Amino acid sequence: MRFKAILFHFLVMSFMAAWPAAAQQPIQLVGFGDSLMAGYQLAPSESYTAQLETALQAKGHDVVVTNAGVSGDTTSGGLSRVDWSVPDGTDGVILELGANDALRGISPDETEKNLDAIISRLKERNIPVLLAGMMAPPNMGSAYSERYNEIYPRLAEKHDVPLYPFFLDGVVAVAGTQLEDGMHPNAKGVGIMVERSLPAVEAFLGDIRTSGK
């Protein structure tokens, strides 16, 4: 009996040692963006990253979603801080930037150049990216909007990264989902954003697990 107990203990310890360490650790996601990611005027628990983490964990995913959103950030600002805002050990990034570029009328060429560089830097670090798209506000005019709205699909195709087409889907111009400024989502609006984007994020998690991250 003593020999069997020792043998069983040895087999268990061998199995634990052989089990991939990554499988025992939660997947580390980072939401990298502007005020829409940061949770402008919302409690920390009401932000997109917080509500997304709760929704994913409720569906059985062992995941931590860190908020690296900075209100007012442009793609240029994001590029300047991506190396230190996304820490080593990050398994995936949800990249949401560009809304402030459009509001400021920044050239779509410049926006695309910056996003291209951000994605490239993350790929160089072997960090997968889920690109969250934006759409230019109508008051920018059709010519600007057409150029701007093509940025995200083109970058997703170029870098072969998944695209969630419109981060504010279900919230724009929907009564009761925005703050008084008519631009930022309230807690209810963020909940809608999480619900709509959840399938894309779950597919992203599947890609991360498949890649062995």
Automatic annotation (TrEMBL):
SUPFAM superfamilies: SGNH hydrolase (SSF52266). Residues 32-189 form the SGNH hydrolase-type esterase domain. InterPro entries: Ester_Hydrolysis_Enzymes, SGNH_hydro, SGNH_hydro_sf. Gene3D superfamilies: SGNH hydrolase. The keyword Oxidoreductase does not apply. Keywords: Signal. This is Arylesterase.
